[in-house]
Every structure is written in C-alpha cells, then in structure tokens.
DNA sequence: CTGAAATACTCAGTGCCCTGATTAATTTGT
DNA sequence: ACAAATTAATCAGGGCACTGAGTATTTCAG
C-alpha cells in the first residue's frame, strides 16, 4: 500500500549501475583482475612507491579494503611491498614488470569496455553523466569530511 | 607513464557514488537495515507473498545474495517464510507487523536522505541524472540477457 | 627527554555480490 | 507413466566495503 518506486532512489540506481558494470567488466576486460584492482595498478603506474594508505586515498578505498586488494595483487606477483626505511610504519608499493604488463593490457580492454558501456548515450550526454555523478558523489563525500572548522575546538 | 584518469571511467564513478550513498544511508537512515534490505521490504509491501527468486528479480539481486538478505531479515523477525503448498520448491515471503512498521519508518527517512543526496542538482538535473543512469544500466543488462533468438537453437 | 597523541597497518566481524555445483521438486516429452 | 529437462533454493568459494579494536612506530608537548 505504501510501497515506493525504487527507480526514483539514487542509491538503488547506483547499485544497479555498478552491478551492470561488474558484469560487463567480467566479460570484456578480465575475470582475474577486478576493476578496483585495476584502479590500484593504475595509481601505482602514475605514482610508483606510494604507501598503502595513500593508494587507498587515490582510488577511494578504505584502509581495510585496500589492504585486502594489495595482498591479492602481491600474491599474484603484480606488485612488491617493502618497508619504508624512513618510516617503519609504512609499506612502499611498486609494480613488478608483470604488474606493468597487466596494466598495459587491461588499459586497452578497459577503454573498449567503457565505449560499449556508454554507447547508449550521445557524447554530450556522456559528459553530463560524468558531471552529474561526480557532483553528487563529491558533495556526499564532503558531508562526511566537513572542511576544517574556522576555529579549532579545544 | 601510461596511467589513465579514473574520473573518466564510469565504473569507478559508479563505485564512488555507491560508497557515498552507503555512508549517507548509514548516518541518515539506519545502521541496522541496509539499502538492499529496505528494497526487499519494499518489494514485499508492494506484493506480499512473493517467492524468493521473484523478489530478487524485482530488486536486482541474484539468487545467492537474495537468500542471504532474506535470511537476515527473517532472523530479525521482519518477514516470514513459508513453503508454497502449490509448489514445494518455493518459499513464500510476507512481512511481519514489525517488518511493516520498519518499512514505514524507513520510508520517511529514506525520502529525506534522497533529498540531501541529490541536493547538489537542480530539479531538471535530477531527472537527467535518473534517466542517464537508467539508460546505461538497462542497456548493460540487455547485453547480458540478449532477447530470445528468432529461431531457437537446437 | 619522556609520556601522550597521532599515524600506518592488521585483525575480527558483518554485509553485499557474483559464479559454479548440488539438491529437491515440478513440468514436459514421448 | 516415467525419464529428461527445468526450476527454486542452498552451499562453497572468492572478492569488495565498512566499523571498531589492537599493535607498532613516529611525532609532538611540556
């Protein structure tokens, strides 16, 4: 009687979008390497030698999740993990040759997949799609991490 | 050297959007009931007595996931599960009074949360947001379940 | 210089999400 | 009528995502 239309719920839409993406990734990109794993490889191509926490920040994964993802990539020999001699708390991460090769291969496939995924939208709509999602996601993240208060509370 | 900009990857955006939603849901709606759980409650308000598989279809969850979600809702006393006397394979699902109450309460909070979540967009942009995401998700699901071939292969 | 606070990482626990294999019940083809 | 195919649900297994608590190391305040 009081049921609601889930098609007007952004969270529901977001979940369906991600599921659809997951499926397409599996068939068009890789069954071994997932999209978050690719994001980590990509971050380490851009900035070799990052520590674990910073990689998580770059790709939007929390401390626990990034630890798991990195452990999997390490087990598969795609990256190396060494203690920072300057700061014994950190591990510095660097892709192996195999990791670099994998990233190169997947970059090509990912581009193809993105084209297929976004094919239902015109070029103008694709820009809008990115912009609207980015604005909503950024704003929600902002709610979580409020800017520094003007006067530090004591 | 060959790193890619993740902000142009719809899968990455979709994941960030869902994460942002997850956080906001947790703070504004409920720490007990998740968004997928609410979707199941909602489906059973709309159509009491559905079987498990059909609920999964309605809310977009696969057979394994829907089984887990329903088992959790059952443990919390929000729904009942009885074997279909007409078809011994099925379980028929129905909300308890407690389940109905919970759905009613969360419906209000969810509406508030959706407003906050979408606040960065104008009304026109919100419509566009829904439409673009829906089109992409629908198309990708269509790739997965291709329409019946004209001639059934044998 | 030393105790307190902050930081990087790990671990335990919960929940979502998918696939492939298995089990039980029903439907279908002959 | 009955074997074969289909269907609903379960189970095992892998991966993502978050929180709260714990450990080790570094930094900071007095």
From TrEMBL, chains A, B:
Source species, domain of life: Bacteria
SMART domains referenced in this protein's UniProt entry, alphabetically: HTH_MARR
One protein family per Pfam: MarR_2
InterPro entries: HTH_MarR-typ, MarR/SlyA-like, WH-like_DNA-bd_sf, WH_DNA-bd_sf
UniProt-listed SUPFAM superfamilies: Winged helix' DNA-binding domain
Residue ranges occupied by any HTH marR-type domain in the UniProt entry: 1-138
Protein's recorded name: MarR family winged helix-turn-helix transcriptional regulator
């Amino acid at each position: 009687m009081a049921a609601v239309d889930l098609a007007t719920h952004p969270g529901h839409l977001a979940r369906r979008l991600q599921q659809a993406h997951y499926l397409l990734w599996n068939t068009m990109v890789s069954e071994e390497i997932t999209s978050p794993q690719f994001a980590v490889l990509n971050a380490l191509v851009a900035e070799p030698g990052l520590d674990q926490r910073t990689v998580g920040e770059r790709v939007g994964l929390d401390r626990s999740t990034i630890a798991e993802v990195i452990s999997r990539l390490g087990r598969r020999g795609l990256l190396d993990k060494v203690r920072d001699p300057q700061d014994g708390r950190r591990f510095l991460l660097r892709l192996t040759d195999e990791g670099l090769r994998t990233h190169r291969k997947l970059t090509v496939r990912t581009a193809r997949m993105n084209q297929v995924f976004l094919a239902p939208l015109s070029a103008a709509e694709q820009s809008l799609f990115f912009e609207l999602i980015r604005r909503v996601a950024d704003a929600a993240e902002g709610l979580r991490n409020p800017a520094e208060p003007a006067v530090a509370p004591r």
